[in-house]
């Protein structure tokens, strides 16, 4: 079920909200918690009920392993097994499940390419949210191993894993972040300020998704998937359209998830903080998909040795972490290369820092943004040829098409092969593309982000009108329902 759908907004969410708080008002706390788990599993099953046993089995397995890690080695099922053995077994099983569904066909196709063996692909449909609930539960097992969390109630654990606002595309939460909130007696009753905050940020996220992101999506799809060739302007418009689509799509999802959770008095961790304002690549990863960055740092980079074993190992660990991060996003060499690019950029940034050089902020931002924009091309492209098509046209002067109104630029640019004709052959909305890119570029760079707006939010007539406008306008745009991009990962 999608957040940006009529059935979710007008049926599922209101029913879950009122039943949950009704049960709590009758002091049926366990019943309310059980209902929320049931509703979350229903939300998950709406997409494909076939995979409901998968998430249930995964939860039960990790609950048992987590409990065994939390117990003393001399007690219970830990007897005869070391904590290291149990943790390794749990992580391997989780990765095996993820690997089978997400990477089996990728492995088979590459095996067929390099050998004479022709294995038939399994053509498995990727279970929704498997990457997110797998990483979340791996983090839980490691936290249990470290004695940082203990959970002996399966219902509590099920709620931690399945809580529907963050189930499908994050944020990747820790047990210690969530369960104290569900246990708090103050969170068991309706909080009208939280409701107002939740509706405000949900409306903002909905607007970002269905009005802004889905508009850029059409132009990005035209350039990447439909156009055979691109001129210089079309190529830049294509790459920037996807860069902005991903920004507003992911930012919109994050806002909606935060808003829905606030309705239930739950505060999800910040997962998105104006990443395109970053002045270096390290700063970018402190702002983009913050909980994934936290996971990669705490459960991959640091266990590999982090920066504690010399410069060479530090660079190797950075590269390994981001190649894994790229592969986590998708089973394809374009994703691996995207992760590799970011790993290289972080290594270069570390060297740059060690030398002590500092660039002016404008230049630092310009380099960072353009690197991120170029790297996103490989993230978006379905095939290498699509990435090469866009990237080569962005930096080629062999196919420059400008509006006839700009004919005076010929002498200024000293380029002989400029064609003055219709610029956007891949879209009927050439002027609108440029206007949207310029306008939302300005919004991204100079406006307050959603988190700041949430902190500054005050219930007033003006805020009610603003939220209502965003919500109503967005609802009228729901005729073209589309998935969030991170549902694919």
């Amino acid at each position: 079920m999608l957040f940006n759908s009529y059935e979710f907004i007008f049926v599922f969410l209101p029913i879950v909200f009122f039943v949950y708080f009704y049960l709590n008002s009758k002091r049926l706390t366990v019943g309310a918690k059980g209902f929320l788990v049931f509703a979350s599993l229903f939300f998950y099953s709406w997409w494909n009920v076939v995979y409901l046993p998968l998430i249930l089995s995964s939860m039960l397995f990790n609950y048992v392993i987590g409990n065994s890690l939390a117990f003393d080695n001399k007690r219970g099922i830990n007897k005869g097994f070391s904590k290291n053995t149990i943790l390794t077994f749990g992580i391997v099983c989780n990765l095996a499940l993820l690997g089978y569904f997400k990477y089996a066909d990728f492995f088979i196709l590459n095996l067929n390419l390099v050998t004479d063996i022709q294995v038939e692909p399994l053509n498995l449909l990727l279970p929704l949210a498997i990457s997110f609930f797998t990483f979340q539960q791996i983090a839980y097992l490691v936290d249990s191993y470290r004695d940082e969390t203990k959970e002996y109630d399966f219902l509590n654990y099920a709620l931690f894993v399945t809580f529907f606002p963050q189930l499908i595309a994050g944020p990747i939460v820790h047990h210690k972040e969530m369960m104290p909130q569900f246990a708090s007696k103050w969170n068991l009753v309706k909080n009208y300020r939280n409701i107002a905050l939740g509706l405000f940020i949900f409306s903002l996220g909905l607007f970002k998704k269905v009005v802004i992101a889905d508009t850029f999506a059409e132009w990005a799809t035209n350039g990447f998937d439909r156009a055979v060739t691109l001129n210089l302007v079309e190529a830049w418009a294509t790459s920037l359209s996807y860069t902005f689509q991903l920004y507003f799509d992911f930012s919109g999802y994050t806002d909606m998830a935060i808003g829905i959770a606030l309705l239930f008095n739950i505060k999800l961790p910040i997962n998105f903080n104006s990443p395109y304002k970053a002045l270096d690549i390290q700063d970018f990863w402190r702002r983009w998909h913050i909980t994934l960055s936290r996971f990669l740092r705490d459960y991959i980079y640091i266990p590999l040795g982090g920066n504690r074993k010399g410069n060479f190992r530090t660079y190797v660990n950075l590269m390994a972490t981001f190649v894994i991060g790229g592969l986590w996003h998708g089973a394809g060499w374009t994703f691996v290369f995207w992760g590799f690019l970011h790993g290289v950029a972080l290594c270069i940034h570390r060297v740059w820092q060690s030398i002590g050089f500092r660039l002016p902020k404008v230049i630092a931002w310009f380099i960072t943004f353009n690197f991120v924009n170029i790297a996103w091309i490989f993230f978006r492209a379905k095939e290498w040829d699509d990435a090469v098509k866009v990237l080569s046209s962005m930096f080629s002067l062999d196919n420059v098409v400008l509006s006839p109104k700009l004919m005076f630029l010929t002498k200024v640019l000293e380029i002989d092969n400029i064609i003055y004709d219709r610029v956007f052959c891949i879209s009927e909305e050439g002027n609108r593309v440029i206007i949207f890119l310029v306008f939302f570029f300005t919004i991204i760079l100079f406006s307050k982000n959603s988190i700041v707006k949430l902190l500054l939010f005050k219930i007033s007539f003006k805020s009610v009108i603003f939220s209502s406008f965003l919500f109503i306008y967005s609802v009228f745009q729901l005729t073209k329902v589309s998935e969030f991009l991170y549902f694919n990962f």
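The CA atoms of residues 327 and 333 lie 8 Å apart. The mean pLDDT is 89.
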